[in-house]
């Protein structure tokens, strides 16, 4: 199909990645965002392109997305792409066994895994002067600036002359070959892609019913500038519990023999930490699955994350300048990265990448374009 007009509902990374794929194939795109700017999970995350934790069956699409992010970073410097890699730091023998198994896995070379002794960890990332037994290095992990990426991508798309972004435009109905917003404006469309993020009700439910997705809440924070470079992203051994790449008898043993601290277990916590371009650290996170979610944030997770980060860095953190909570949409189908539901002949609802939206966005946009023969 050549020269189609797409209307994309949703201004987050998934909607924007689909716009990028469509524009790249010669189509026209109108993108509607109900807020003045995307304010959901897209901007409330680490900006990590996280290859290390993805399962074996997701590895190919993850590496494809990593390559696409690098290409995008070359064309759109404002997204802040950097191939910094990551270090998962282990502090117990049980965690070390999981890291050793990952480094010996058949996919280890593709992922860029290497298990490093403490001296080599510190040579790679001199800011890590704290206590740990080893570090699982993943050279393919990368980062983008989550709060800068979308405006930079929209400016790039706008320069093509085939893209228009409407902020503060809430799609209310799809009538025939047009999308109608809350001001009564009609946007003609050959194809409509609804990328609603965690907004599973309203128009999304009207179009596609109850989808096989759930909402997940997280808490995170950001510090003032560290005053030195953190050359890689870092994670702790608790992160093994939340990523399918590490499943196996060693992880089962870790979960049996070494329970997390009460706070970490209660809030289903892991430490992920990445340095922003301004020097501050984005640190998180928690996992909450049972709705209704609280409207406020709990201080105990922040205290735990601060303690673990300071133990690994071997120094006090700078002051925390921001704290926030966020909600993302996660597919509950173990065989699906996202849920794609055909709501009408020319209407698709696409949601549910979970915590993988930033990592996989570009590849998911290309995959949808391929599936729909754009």
UniProtKB/TrEMBL annotation:
Keyword Flavoprotein assigned: yes
A single GO cellular-component term from the record reads: cytoplasm
InterPro entries referenced in this protein's UniProt entry, alphabetically: FAD-dep_OxRdtase, FAD-dependent_OxRdtase_HpnW, FAD/NAD-bd_sf
Which Gene3D superfamilies does this entry report, sorted A to Z? D-Amino Acid Oxidase, subunit A, domain 2, FAD/NAD(P)-binding domain
Does Amino-acid biosynthesis appear among the keywords? no
Q: Which GO terms describe its molecular function?
A: oxidoreductase activity
Ranges of residues in domain FAD dependent oxidoreductase: 6-371
User: The organism sits in which domain of life?
Assistant: Bacteria
> What keywords are assigned to this protein?
Flavoprotein, Oxidoreductase
Which Pfam families has this protein been placed in?
DAO
Cofactor dependency: FAD
The entry assigns this protein to a family as follows: Belongs to the DadA oxidoreductase family.
Protein name, UniProt field: Putative FAD dependent oxidoreductase
Species annotation: Nocardia wallacei
- Provide the taxonomic classification: Bacteria, Bacillati, Actinomycetota, Actinomycetes, Mycobacteriales
